[in-house]
TrEMBL record:
Flavoprotein keyword on record: yes
Stated name of the protein: LLM class flavin-dependent oxidoreductase
Lineage: Bacteria, Pseudomonadati, Pseudomonadota, Alphaproteobacteria, Hyphomicrobiales
Organism whose genome encodes this protein: Ancylobacter oerskovii
Coiled-coil segments: none
Matches recorded under Gene3D superfamilies: Luciferase-like domain
Keywords: Flavoprotein, Monooxygenase, Oxidoreductase
Family, per entry: Belongs to the bacterial luciferase oxidoreductase family.
Signal sequence residues: none
Amino acid sequence: MGKTRFGIFMPPWNSPPTQNITTSLQRNMETIQWIDALGYDEAWVGEHHSAGSEIIADPMVFLAHVGALTKTIKLGTGIVPLPYHNPYHVADRMILMDHLLRGRFMAGFGPGGLPSDASMFGLDPRQLRPALDHDLGVLMKLLTSLDPVSAKTERYELNNAFCQVAPYSDPVFDVCVAATRSEAGPRIAGKHGLGLLSTGVISPKEGMPAPPLHWDVYAEEAVKHGHVPDPSRWRLVVNVHVAETREQAVADMRHGFDAFCEYTQKTIAMPSITAVGDTFEERIAWMNETGIGVIGTPDDAVAFLKRLAARAGDFGCFLMLAHDWANREATLRHYELFARHVIPHFQPTRERLLIAEERSRATHAADLIKNAAAINAWLPPGEQLPAN
């Protein structure tokens, strides 16, 4: 099998908002340091400006700092709401990020998830997806073309704009568009030949929201505009928390799962990720029984991800939603258990190791006799080893 990449998608969910912000940001940084040490491939960090819990206002500033604290993990903006910004400023800063991170930078864009953010900037949510489509065209020209770019909208104006520095990555770092439930994200990503970041609620169960709907729309649009759809650039965001036992995993969730659910139900107006249930037990059932996530053991996570992969088809990366559902110790343990016991099921080395073990077991009896004879040839008669 091919190598599936793994990582996290960190909005971040630092709820409730009564926490110390400085220590919350420190936790977010330490989480990425921890998964970098465990061998995870990617970490994506979001941009938000309201609602009290998603507190990183500029993911590029945050990731520039984290980049100096990590070694191999790739770091992405997940996501920059491009309609809030002048595309030139974003393009130029991302080129700088790409150089600072020596090719470990990735860019993710979206229309903006929080209506309360858009309202502060005087933007109607209905403007955002058309604006994202237009602005991505401008931004990609700035990143990849030697020709000056001119553009004028109600939000900004560019006159013969030109990025004087080329990206560190040749020809450009990986650029993705986020998608939740609508067709807008896949269509925009396919049109511009970019990667796809499926962040909405998806499930391996029939009748539930399905990732193939994203891919089919994306691939159709990509081909229509002369691009080749690349499944390795498709990332799926999943909901997972694991512990040694199912009982322990559920017990871990009592720390912060209710706060997370209430945030989606009462604070942010994002119907694609609204939790279901009024009690802790109902909310756990919503996650486990509907198939939109898994709270259980590493084996449960393996089964869940295999079902989802079978339904999705070919793709490149699983990203776990980073959260404060469990306390700090249980969260770090979750990432360690997942790295040790879940990720190997989706890597080619696991099959090789099992073949190597099977080969050794098949010749064990004969090898034991041969090895004992070789050792006995050099031992005194009274110290001979048994041949079996």
